[in-house]
Design goal:
With 86 residues, the chain is α+β, with helices and mostly antiparallel strands. It has one domain: Pemi-like Protein 1, Chain: D (Ribbon), CATH 2.10.260. 26% of the residues lie in helices and 21% in strands. The chain has three helices and four strands, in the order ββαββαα. The strands form two sheets. Strands 1-2 form a two-stranded antiparallel sheet. β3 (30-35) and β4 form a beta hairpin. The mean pLDDT is 83. Residues 6-49 form the SpoVT-AbrB domain. One of its GO terms (molecular function) is DNA binding. This is Antitoxin MazE.
């Protein structure tokens, strides 16, 4: 498949057909890797909460103490007994 480079501001880009975008799950951010054969375009897969543990450890190292359980001791028994229904 051939395509042309197009001017995008001071840079250049390419237009990828919708079928290729869907086939290779390319949305939003992509990873570009130069290879001896050319340029490899891969989807960026981010895991949820990526980096949270590192930031948590940094906060502790800076003296920030984690709070107790967020909902510890929270209960609404009246709601549970009278209003909640399955």
């Amino acid at each position: 498949m051939n395509t042309r480079l197009i001017r995008v501001g001071n840079s250049q880009g390419i237009v990828l057909p919708k079928k290729l975008l869907q086939q290779y799950h390319l949305t939003g951010e992509v990873d570009l890797q130069p290879t001896p054969e050319g340029l490899l375009i891969k989807p960026v897969v981010k895991t949820r909460r990526q980096g949270w543990d590192e930031r948590f450890q940094q906060a502790i190292a800076q003296g920030q103490a984690p709070e107790g359980e967020l909902l510890e001791g929270f209960s609404d028994e009246a709601f549970e007994e009278t209003e909640w229904q399955w």
